[in-house]
Design brief:
By secondary structure, the protein is α+β, with helices and mostly antiparallel strands. Helix content is 30%, strand content 39%. It has a seven-stranded antiparallel sheet with strand order 1-7-6-5-4-3-2. The N and C termini lie far apart (43 Å).
């Protein structure tokens, strides 16, 4: 099994602290900025960054749906890590200043990929597909915080 990684970033016209706070707000903001690829969104514990337990289903393709139950931690300022209890998937969100009134938001997801020919296709196509999903999510986040 090889590790698969998908990374996407966007410059958002808002202060890094405001972008991070919106991203860490699982009660109000996160559900609003998710794309149509996510369903059954539910905050089960917490709701504001560290200590949050959140559930959703992610439909990456017409045939592939991942049932995610994520523990959220904040290991450093400006960083959220979502670890899926149901798989090896770990998503890291990092928000840093990017000049006056701007922030760079980076999302990176890694997981243990399948072996064999299925793994080849997963390593080839999954990062691009997930990248498109997260690019749309970051656009939604930008729209939310740039109001």
């Amino acid at each position: 099994m090889a590790q698969v990684e998908a990374t996407t970033e966007r410059i958002i016209a808002a202060d890094a602290e405001a972008v991070f706070d919106a991203l860490a707000d699982y009660k109000e903001v996160r559900g609003k900025v998710l794309t149509g690829h996510f369903s059954e969104y539910e905050v089960r514990e917490g709701g504001d960054g560290e200590g949050t337990l959140v559930h959703w289903k992610l439909q990456a393709t017409s045939k592939r749906v991942r049932d995610c139950l994520l523990d959220v931690t904040e290991p450093t300022d400006g960083q959220l890590i979502e670890k899926d209890r149901n798989s090896s998937m770990v998503t890291t969100w990092t928000v840093t200043p990017a000049g006056e009134g701007k922030a760079r938001a980076v999302v990176s997801t890694v997981w243990d990929g399948a072996g064999g020919i299925g793994g080849f296709f997963e390593r080839t196509f999954a990062p691009k597909g997930l990248g498109r999903i997260y690019d749309e999510l970051l656009q939604n986040l930008a729209t939310e915080v740039e109001k």
